[in-house]
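Predict the 3D structure for this chain.
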Amino acid sequence: MNKYIEIKNAHIHNLKGIDVKIPRNKLTVITGVSGSGKSSLAFDTLYEEGKHRYLMFSNSGFMVEGESAFDQITGLSPTVAVEQRIIRQSNPRSTVGTKTKISNMLAILFATYGERENKCEGGRPLTMEMFQKNSAKGMCVKCLGKGIVKKIDEEKLFGDGSQKIEDVCLGVGKRGSTKKMLESFYKYYKVTGDTPLNNLTSDELFVLKYGDYGKSSFIGFIPWITEVTNGAFSATGRLEQMLTEAGYMEKGKCPKCQGMGLGEEAIHTSIGGKTISEMEQMYIKDLYEFLSKLSTKNRLIQEILTKLECMIDVGLYHLALSRSLPTLSGGEIQRLFLASYIIADMDAIIFIFDEPTIGLHEIEKAKLIDIIKKLVGKGNTVVAVEHDEGFIRQADYIIDLGPDAGVLGGAKIYEGDFSTFLSCDDSRTAPYLSGKRPFVHKEDYRRFNETKLLTLKNASLHNLKNITVDIPLGVMIGVVGVSGSGKSSLISETLVPKLKALLKSKCIMEDEVEEAIELGQVELLGVSQIKKCYVIDQKPIGRTRTSCLATYTGTMDRIRQLFAKASDLPPGFFSVNAQGGCPKCKGEGEVHYHVGYGNFIHVKCEACEGIGFIPESAEVTLEGKNIKDVLEMSVDEAITFFNDKDEPITNMLETLKRVGMGYIKLGQKTPTISGGESQRIKLAKELSKGQAAKDSLYILDEPTTGLSFYDSEKLMVLLQELVDKGNTVIIIEHDSHVLSSCDYLIEMGAGGGKDGGEVIATGTPRELKENPHSIIGRYLC
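Done. Predicted structure below.
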């Protein structure tokens, strides 16, 4: 077998026809600044070709030849990849347990060995489905498996009868599908949206509330609210939040299943004194210990223990099987996949990872590196796109791309071992690793007014131990701790929902948050000192396959106007979602062929030649560039192009560049944008509005995810400027260089799960370096 995987003339995206060699059965790291071509080489070239070759010989019965991203690849074996930008878990019913299949295994265990309570003996035989919330046979009939019931206050919702029909339920009857839904009611009962409720007869009011399918075909407000708020879409959360804030809806534990979401048989069946719901709510580390001590030993329990042990090894000991996948970070989801690969015990595979150290504390990274090296030791090849210093130092082979991003990147800067890499002066990364260019740190920390604080009291969500935390205002704060120590529980799931409840519309965030029932006793003092709060998370942006950077940021509307002025066509002809979209590919520029096993081949659309627009639209040019040419521009290129054409477009693009997104194309589809990129784009969108001047609070979760040292440094300069203007920035971070640049640190710990949930150290980075209780202190610069 070949000693190397050799790639000749890789030229997809911004790769400049490079030749690279990747040693087999070794750990190779591909590094470089953001946008230098790392993902293009690792995923769009190496992984895609490995998948393509597998499908050729997998008996799929279908073959399509797409455009080649290279001239030749030799030494290739099957590829497996987990990429940050395509990990999108949006179904709230999908959990750690369902993803790993451990919930299924526990269901079988309970169906086979479960002990029923006396009152349930003699009932139906136990089956696997009875222990699954997503099964009709297992879910609680009252809450439909959610464990929570929502009560609508009809008296408040319909008021004293003086309001108009269209104003009911916060005026939803004035817009969209609800307006259409009401038309059948208006027509049948000969009323309008302006009709006051007092003018309706008791029968008509009853139908307005509860519907009458037999006469008017109107579903009714109460059934409609119930249906929408039980859905899994973004609109669900927004409506629910609005109704809760207005006092029209209350939530509480389901009284029938006591919040378990399961039916009678599952609630009253146990193993070792615990129900399946109690086991799924345990931290993985605790569940492993519990099952290990059971007197009953069988093959199924051993298989469950093997899976749990792998999850502990990859740093997921702090999770519970009941944890919803949309609440996990990209790094946590990637490590779930990594655990499954280890369990499968495969060899001769090329594994490709995208920043596997994301979300890990410094002390946890060493264990992850050991696990990845075990994969290599089994005869596999591992290729990782990575920026972490410790991980890069452990690599057997380095490929550095650059020197910069976009059109200024895509070249091979270095290829070889780590020791020689340190002396590569052309690299943007090597000088940071060798110490020639130290990461910019603050020499003096901002002093804060001890009376100007946010104080969070009685925080006890998840593993938080009823703690009180002071958060100084007017400085940059870093929140740090090992996985499961309580960082997200404290900031994202306690502080943010309390801020939203108190600031309401002054708390700006794209995805509405749900205040947990357990937050009732939590107090938040000092909120009056904050004028606005911006919560900028890593959740995906864009809702459709044709959504792109330009549409999300609003620049596309202005670009369409410029092209419309340069022609006799209306703006809609420059939208792939309107008249301008190619009818064959629906504006995507490519068609998708399902080839079995859940795989698709994407081929350039022949009708529009991959541009996504109809010929009439593509023929219009602006200074020699058509609409597709413009969308193919990187942000850096577009700044030059639009500089004297449209100031709002230029301002938006300049802000994107400042947050490290100068390399991204205007037309890059939002489903291909990673969580870290999504967060920085959201930040740029808010900053470009120029509204926050002083006393605003910005909350970000790992803002440097996916950024090189070079790009992280630029982002930190921007965040420091926000603080200099009188604002407060809170970041949840693990990067020691970034944490060393903060004014004040809050460290959670000491461990994860039940061993965490407390504040173990606070103060400046210098103070934590000298604090014997601090774990992160020894890693700070």
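The domain at 453-540+689-779 is CATH 3.40.50.300 (Rossmann fold).
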